[in-house]
Structure formats: C-alpha cells, structure tokens
Specification:
The complex is a heterodimer of chains A (about 200) and B (about 260). Helices cover about 75% and strands about 0% of the residues of chain A. Chain A is globular. Helix content of chain B is about 75%, strand content about 0%. With about 260 residues, chain B is mostly helical. Classes of the chains: A mainly alpha (about 200), B mainly alpha (about 260). At the A-B interface, α2, α3, α5, α6 and α7 of A face α2, α3, α5, α6 and α8 of B.
Chain lengths: ~200, ~260
C-alpha cells in the first residue's frame, strides 16, 4: 500500500470512529483511551497507541461536551497522533503529540462550520413538510453523518499527506531545546491531566 | 418490549447526528419520534404533518437523558391523536422543560463522573491484564471501560423511554423523585478513587514505558491536583512543563 492509500485508510478509520464522539451513540468508543490502542493495534504498535491515547484522554476529560460540542476534538487528536507515530511517518511521540493537538484544534473548527451549515437541513425539512411533500428526515440525517465523516477525513488526511512527511523531515533538525520542551510536555501530560482531573473531582465531590 | 419502543430507542442513538446551532438536536428528535407519530396519526395526513412540524422545533438535552422526554412526547402525541385536544401542546412544552431539567444531573453524572471513572477503570483493567501476562491487555481494559460506561448509559435510555411511553406526563414526577444527587456524589467519589488508583498502578509499569523516573511522574500528578484549579485545566500546566523541559534541554540537563 503506498503512502497516500495508507493515509486514506487511516483517515477513513479515524473518521468512522469519530462519529461516535457525538453523532452516533455516543458509546465512548471514540474516547482517546480507546481510539489510541485501536489505531495503534491496527498499525502493529498498541503501546504507542495506548501512550498517546492516555495522554489525550487525561488532557480532555475535564472538558464536558455541553451543547454537544468541544473546543478541541480529542478523538481526532489521538487518532492522528497515533497514526503519525506508529505509521509510515514514524514521528517521535512528542512530535506526533503536537501534531495531534493541532489536528484536534483544526477539527473542532471544521465541526463548528458543519454545525452552522446544518441549520439549512431543518429549515428545508420544515418547508417540505409544510408543503405536503414526503418527509426527508432520514436522508437529511444520514447526509449530515456523511458530511461529518468527510470533514474528519479531510482534516486527518491533510495532516497525513502534508504535515506528517514535512514534520518527519524537519523535526530532527529542530534545536534541542524545542525537542526537549516537546518531550517534557508529552511525558508530563498524562500525569498533569490526571492530577488536575482528580483535584477537580475532589472539589466537586 | 414493544416494537415501537425498540424503534424509538434505536433511532434515539442518532439524536445528535443533525446537531445544529439553531435547533440543536431538533432534527434528530424529529427523526427519532417519527415512528410514534406515524403510528398515532395513521390515516390522518394533516395531523401527521402538524405533529412533524411541532417536533422539528429546537430541542437540547443530554443525549442519554433525552430518552425520557422522547417517550413522554410520543405518549402525549398518541393521546392528542386520540382526541385529547391539549395533549400535543402539553407534550411539546414538557419535552423542552424536561430535557433542560434532566440534563444538569445527567451531564454531571455521565460526562463529569462516569466518563472519568470508565477511562480510569479501562487503564486499571489494562494494567492488571498486563501484569497477569494477558496477550491482549488493551482489549481487556477496553472491555472493562466500555462496559462500565455503556451499561448505565444504555439502561438510562431504555428505561427512560419505557417510563415516558408508559406514564406520559406522570413520568416527569417519577424522574424528579430519583436520588440523582446521591448517584452523582457516589460516582464522583468512585471516579476519584479510580483516577488515583490508575495513576498509582501506572507507576508499576516499567520505567521505559513511563519515559521518566517514577518520582517525577508522581510529582507531576500532585502538581496537577494542586495547580489545576488555578490554570483552568491541564493544558497550561502541560505548556509550563514544556517550558521547563526546554530550559533543561538547553542547559544540557535533559537527554534526548
């Protein structure tokens, strides 16, 4: 499988799993602690998947999906980071972690746009039913699922096709202090996130 | 188990598929309740059209808690189709107020407590399976975490829908009498215990998997617990850790 086909397959799997974040279920399958090992196992590196998955899980557990939305898409961040670290790009974990953060941030913006665009679907259905036309609710709903998956696919594939290869070339040439800072941030993330979560739960209990 | 309940339940799993800024879950709610409307208004095209339009209105609720308003609205639509003139407007009003009233408790229970509990339990299950030499520690952890989260979530959806369909408006009173605050408190305490236990169990993993000395990891956990409230979450703390790491690397104190 060439790099583009492999990237497309990876992006497709992440896009399908991401639907669980809000659109279908949710069954928690898209949480980083699960999506990380799933993507990692598919690439033959479950430990890499688990490490990155736990890091993103700890960082995102305090964000409650109120209103069904996030400022940061943890499933996409985890899936993209694991693919970049365990896939062809073979990025160092800390570089994949930063790329995942960027992908999660970008995906949340794409999702906001999709949500805004969906307002037209309800209005279209309303006009159709008022005019006595047959209901197209199912079609509208499934087209919005398809668009959501396409949006996720586009973000993940763009990172795999462009940012991943570029980062794997640039990363070794970066100054030591930048790589050291990224490594420290990645290694500390699960512990800081879990501690912050425990403190937050303690205050509310 | 009625086939109508099963159909509403399955459709409620796509409640948020059409989530939009303007009507929130309105599109998903309208699709979920449609089998009940078609059954209630069979042979009454005008009634069905009016009911479909009613349920395209804005609706927003925690997705697991939304099953109860869905059942109540379906039950009241059946009464409206049977001749109870005010049932339709009562149902439309009640679904919105019930959704809002239940969501606070459901957000705190499912998102704020059960989700961390399930994630930490998945990690604990995986680490336990690793120490027991299981060939698939990640699958074991995933089964534990997913079961812990989905069993109450799916039960809440199914039972809420059943209660709403059976009791109609009376379901609101039954829902309000549930000891939700006690459940939330218990789930939070369990989540704290699970998160602390998962962090402690993680320290039992080999040093090469942790990537840092155990004492530093424990210190980072304590720093997160103590400082998280002042930084509005862990991201700024992670950025600060990155800064410290960059300074250490620049001074030669951090090997890459």
């Amino acid at each position: 499988m060439n790099a583009l086909a492999s990237g497309a397959a990876g992006a497709g799997i992440i896009a399908l799993l991401e639907l669980d974040a809000a659109s279908v279920g949710p069954f928690a399958l898209s949480r980083p602690v699960f999506i990380g090992p799933i993507v990692g196992s598919l690439l033959g590196s479950p430990w890499i998947g688990a490490g990155l998955g736990v890091a993103f899980e700890a960082l995102s557990l305090e964000d409650l999906p109120l209103g069904g939305g996030f400022d940061f898409s943890a499933p996409v961040a985890a899936g993209v980071a694991v693919y970049l670290a365990a896939g062809r790009a073979a990025l160092p974990l800390e570089a994949a972690f930063l790329a995942g953060l960027a992908a999660g941030w970008a995906h949340a913006r794409v999702e906001r746009g999709l949500r805004h665009a969906r307002c037209a679907q309800a209005r279209r259905e309303e006009q159709g039913v008022s005019a006595g036309r047959p209901s197209r609710l199912g079609r509208e709903l499934f087209s919005s699922l398809a668009l959501q998956a396409a949006g996720t696919f586009a973000v993940a594939f763009a990172v795999f096709a462009a940012a991943g290869p570029a980062a794997s070339r640039v990363w070794p040439a970066l100054p030591v202090f930048l790589r050291g800072g990224a490594r420290a941030a990645f290694l500390a993330a699960p512990w800081l996130g879990a501690g912050s979560l425990a403190g937050s739960l303690w205050r509310r209990a | 188990m009625s086939s109508l309940q099963t159909r509403l339940f399955l459709r409620s799993l796509l409640l948020q598929a059409g989530f939009c800024d303007e009507r929130r879950q309105g599109l998903g709610f309208a699709w979920a309740i449609d089998p009940a409307l078609q059954s209630a208004y069979a042979g009454d095209a005008a009634g069905l059209r009016a009911a479909r339009l009613r349920h395209l209105a804005s609706f927003n609720a925690q997705p697991y808690a939304a099953a109860l308003p869905l059942g109540v609205a379906a039950a009241l639509e059946a009464r409206a189709a049977g001749g109870d003139a005010s049932a339709a407007s009562r149902g439309a009003a009640l679904k919105g107020s019930l959704g809002a009233a239940l969501s606070g408790a459901a957000d705190a229970f499912f998102w704020g407590s059960l989700r961390p509990l399930a994630a930490a339990s998945a990690l604990l299950g995986g680490i336990a399976a690793y120490h027991l030499d299981s060939p698939r520690p990640f699958a074991c952890g995933a089964v534990v975490g997913l079961a812990l989260f989905n069993a109450p979530a799916l039960w809440t959806r199914w039972a809420g829908l059943e209660l709403g369909l059976r009791e109609g408006e009376g379901a609101a009173v039954a829902a309000c009498s549930l000891p939700a605050q006690d459940w939330i408190r218990a789930a939070r305490v369990a989540a704290i215990a699970a998160v602390v236990a998962a962090a402690a169990a993680s320290l039992s993993l080999p040093r090469e998997l942790l990537g840092m000395p155990r004492a530093v990891a424990a210190l980072a956990f304590a720093a997160g617990a103590a400082l998280g409230r002042f930084t509005g979450g862990p991201l700024r703390l992670v950025a600060a850790a990155g800064l410290i790491g960059a300074l250490a690397a620049a001074s030669g104190g951090l090997a890459l």
